C-alpha cells in the first residue's frame, strides 16, 4: 500500500490490475485522503392548545413545525489521486433545506348517561412538506489550497431540485358504549394528496367496529367464575396509501451535459402516468380477548383479511419502451390473511419479586387472487394465480454434477434448453410464522428484561453472492468456497472455479433463475436485554433526588441459526447486519 518513501503506492497496483483487464482499481488507502464535512441545523417545535367550550364540548388543536438545513462538502486532493491517471483535484458542494408543518384542529363531544357513554370527534389535518437541494461539482483544480472554493474550479457542473408535498384530511368518529358491555365505533374520512393528478387527489375511507364484553354478563360470571375478562370484537374498513413519491403523474425532464448545435439537451427522467389514484385496502378483522384468574393469564387471538386491487407499485415494463418501470395501480387482486395470537402470564407476583412473560406469534399468508391479462403482461413469469406474490417460480436446481463440477438444473420440457418454460413453483419467501418472547423480572430495586424474536422463513443463501461475483473475479468470497468442486468425483455445493466465459460461467449465471440461491433462513435472536438498579429512596432524599437508576442495555447479543450467508435478517453481503451494541448509563429525576 506504501512505497519506500512512505507515500501511497500506485505503480505496483497499476501493473497488477492492468494485467487483469481492470484499470479502475485504486489504492483503497487513498480514500482516507479525501475529506468530508457536514454542518446541520435542526429546529423542532410542537404546541398543543385546548379550550372547553361547554362542559361536554372541547376544542383542541396541535401545531408542529420542523426545519432541517444541511451544508456538505467533499474534497479530493492530489494525494488521493493516482499520478498516472492524469486526473486533477476536485470538490463537491451540496446544501439542502427541508421544512414541514402540520396543523390538526379537533372538536370533541362527550356525554355520559345512565345507559352509556357517547363520544363524537370531528377533525381536520393540514400538512405541508417542502424541500430544496442544490449541488455543485468542481474539477481540474490547479492547487489543493483552492478546493474549498467552487469559484476557483475551472470546470463547474450544478444541479438543483425542489419538491413540495401537501396533504389534508377531514375525519369524524362516533363511539358509543352501552352498559360497558356493547361498544360500537363508526369512523369516516376524506383525504387529499398532492401526489396524484387533480382529478384523482381525493378519496373516501371509512370503518365500522363492534365489541361485546361478555364477561360482564351475569350468566357468564356464574358458569365461568375463573374467567375474569372476555371480549369479542370485529371490524371492517378501508385505509389508503399515497406513499409513491412526488410528481410521478407529471412529464418530468432533466438537463444533460450533452449538447446539440452547441446547446444543452433535455431527456425524460421517467415515464409518467396521470391516471393512477389512491391505493385502497379493505380490512376485515375478528378477535377474542380472554383473561383468567384475575387477569394473571391474558390471551388474545385475532384473524385478519386484507384485500387490495389497486396497490401503488412501480410496474415493470419491457426494456423496449425505453423505461424499466412506471408508477401505476396494480391490476391484480391481492389478499393477505393471517392469525395473530398473544399470551401474557404473571408467573410470580409477591412483595419484592415479580415475573411476567409475554409470547406472541403471527402466521401470515399472501395470495394473488386475480390478475386480468397476466399471461401477456411483464409479470407472466413471476406470478401465478392462487400463489404468493413472493413466489419462487424458477428453474429447479439439481446440484453440482460430480463429473463436470458444474451447476445443473432440471429441463422440465426436455427440449435441451433452459427457458421460462422450465420454471416450476417451489415455495415462496413469505415467513411461515414469526413472533417473540418477552420476560420481565423485578427483584427489589433490580429490573431485568430480555426479548427473543424468532422467524421461520426461506431466504437468499451464499450461493446468491457467488452468482453475482463468480469465483476468480476480483471480489472477496465466503469461506464456503474452499469446499468447492476440484476434480471428478467431488461432491460439493459449490461448482468449479472459473475466471472466464466458460460453461461453468453460463451455469452460474443461471443460478439466479433457479431455486438454488434459496435456503432456510430461520433464526432465533436475543434482540434486547436490559438490566437496571434503582438506588433506595432513603439514600436520595437528602440530595433532593426523586429517583436514580443505573442501567445496562444490550441489543443483538445472540443469534441461533443454521443459515448459510451473511445474516438471516438482512440476507445481503452488502448491507450492514443488525449491530451488537451495549450501552450503560445513569438517570436522575429531580
Structure commentary:
This protein is mainly β. The protein contains five helices and 27 strands. It has helices at residues 11-19, 218-223, 462-468, 503-509, 537-540, and strands at residues 35-54, 57-76, 90-112, 116-139, 155-178, 182-193, 202-212, 227-241, 253-260, 263-268, 279-292, 297-308, 312-316, 325-329, 333-350, 353-370, 391-394, 397-400, 407-409, 424-428, 433-443, 446-456, 458-460, 518-520, 523-534, 547-560, 581-589. The strands form six sheets. The chain has a 17-stranded antiparallel sheet, with no helix packed on it. Strands 9-10 form a two-stranded antiparallel sheet. It has a two-stranded antiparallel ribbon with strand order 13-14. The two termini are 56 Å apart. The model is unreliable at 13-23 (pLDDT under 50).
How much beta, percentage-wise? over 45%
Largest pleated sheet: 17 strands, antiparallel
Catalogue the unreliable spans.
Answer: 13-23
Distance between the termini: 56 Å
Radius of gyration: 31 Å
What structural category do the secondary elements indicate? Answer: mainly beta
Global outline: globular
Q: What is the number of helical segments per DSSP (H or I, 4+ residues)?
A: 5
The helicity comes to under 10%
Q: Estimate the mean pLDDT confidence.
A: 92
SS elements, strand count? 27
Amino acid at each position: 500500500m506504501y512505497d519506500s518513501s512512505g507515500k501511497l503506492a500506485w505503480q505496483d497496483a497499476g501493473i497488477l490490475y492492468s494485467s487483469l483487464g481492470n484499470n479502475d482499481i485504486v489504492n483503497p488507502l487513498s480514500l482516507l485522503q479525501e475529506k468530508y464535512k457536514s454542518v446541520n441545523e435542526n429546529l423542532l417545535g410542537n404546541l398543543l392548545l385546548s379550550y372547553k367550550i361547554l362542559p361536554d364540548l372541547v376544542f383542541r388543536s396541535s401545531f408542529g413545525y420542523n426545519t432541517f438545513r444541511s451544508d456538505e462538502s467533499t474534497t479530493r486532493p492530489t494525494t488521493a489521486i493516482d499520478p498516472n491517471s492524469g486526473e486533477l483535484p476536485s470538490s463537491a458542494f451540496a446544501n439542502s433545506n427541508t421544512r414541514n408543518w402540520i396543523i390538526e384542529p379537533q372538536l370533541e363531544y362527550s356525554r355520559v348517561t345512565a345507559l352509556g357513554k357517547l363520544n363524537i370527534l370531528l377533525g381536520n389535518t393540514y400538512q405541508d412538506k417542502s424541500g430544496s437541494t442544490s449541488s455543485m461539482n468542481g474539477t481540474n483544480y490547479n492547487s489543493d489550497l483552492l478546493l474549498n472554493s467552487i469559484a476557483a474550479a475551472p470546470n463547474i457542473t450544478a444541479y438543483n431540485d425542489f419538491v413540495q408535498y401537501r396533504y389534508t384530511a377531514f375525519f369524524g368518529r362516533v363511539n358509543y358504549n352501552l352498559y360497558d358491555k356493547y361498544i360500537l365505533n363508526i369512523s369516516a374520512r376524506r383525504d387529499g394528496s398532492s401526489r396524484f393528478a387533480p382529478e384523482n387527489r381525493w378519496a373516501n375511507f371509512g370503518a365500522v367496529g363492534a365489541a361485546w364484553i361478555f364477561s360482564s354478563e351475569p350468566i357468564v360470571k356464574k358458569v365461568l367464575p375463573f374467567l375474569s375478562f372476555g371480549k369479542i370484537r370485529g371490524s371492517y374498513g378501508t385505509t389508503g396509501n399515497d406513499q409513491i413519491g412526488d410528481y410521478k403523474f407529471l412529464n418530468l425532464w432533466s438537463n444533460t451535459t450533452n449538447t446539440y448545435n452547441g446547446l444543452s439537451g433535455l431527456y425524460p427522467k421517467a415515464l409518467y402516468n396521470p391516471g393512477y389514484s389512491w391505493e385502497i385496502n379493505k380490512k376485515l378483522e375478528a378477535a377474542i380477548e380472554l383473561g383468567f384468574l384475575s387477569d394473571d393469564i391474558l390471551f388474545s387471538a385475532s384473524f385478519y383479511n386484507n384485500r387490495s386491487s389497486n396497490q401503488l407499485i412501480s410496474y415493470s415494463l419491457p426494456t423496449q419502451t425505453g423505461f424499466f418501470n412506471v408508477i401505476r395501480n396494480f391490476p391484480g387482486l391481492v389478499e393477505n390473511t393471517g392469525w395473530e395470537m398473544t399470551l401474557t402470564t404473571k408467573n410470580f407476583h409477591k412483595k419484592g419479586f415479580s415475573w411476567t412473560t409475554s409470547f406472541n406469534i403471527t402466521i401470515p399468508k399472501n395470495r394473488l387472487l386475480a390478475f386480468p391479462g397476466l399471461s401477456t403482461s411483464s409479470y407472466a413469469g413471476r406470478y401465478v394465480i392462487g400463489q404468493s406474490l413472493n413466489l419462487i417460480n424458477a428453474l429447479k436446481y439439481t446440484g453440482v454434477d460430480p463429473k463436470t463440477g458444474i451447476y445443473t438444473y432440471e429441463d422440465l420440457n426436455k427440449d435441451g434448453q433452459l427457458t421460462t418454460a422450465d420454471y416450476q413453483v417451489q415455495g415462496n419467501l413469505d415467513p411461515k410464522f414469526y413472533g417473540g418472547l418477552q420476560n420481565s423480572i423485578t427483584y427489589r430495586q433490580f429490573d431485568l428484561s430480555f426479548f427473543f424474536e424468532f422467524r421461520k422463513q426461506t431466504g437468499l443463501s451464499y450461493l446468491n453472492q457467488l452468482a453475482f461475483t463468480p469465483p476468480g473475479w476480483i471480489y472477496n468470497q465466503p469461506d464456503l468456497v474452499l469446499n468447492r468442486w476440484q476434480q471428478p468425483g467431488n461432491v460439493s455445493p459449490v461448482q468449479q472455479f472459473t475466471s472466464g466465459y466458460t460453461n461453468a460461467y453460463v451455469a452460474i449465471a443461471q443460478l439466479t433463475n433457479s431455486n438454488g440461491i434459496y435456503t432456510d433462513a430461520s433464526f432465533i435472536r436475543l434482540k434486547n436485554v436490559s438490566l437496571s438498579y434503582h438506588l433506595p429512596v432513603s439514600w436520595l432524599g437528602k440530595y433532593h433526588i426523586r429517583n436514580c437508576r443505573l442501567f445496562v442495555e444490550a441489543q443483538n447479543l445472540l443469534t441461533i441459526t443454521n443459515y448459510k450467508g451473511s445474516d438471516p435478517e438482512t440476507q445481503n453481503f452488502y448491507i450492514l447486519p443488525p449491530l451488537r451494541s451495549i450501552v450503560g448509563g445513569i438517570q436522575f429525576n429531580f
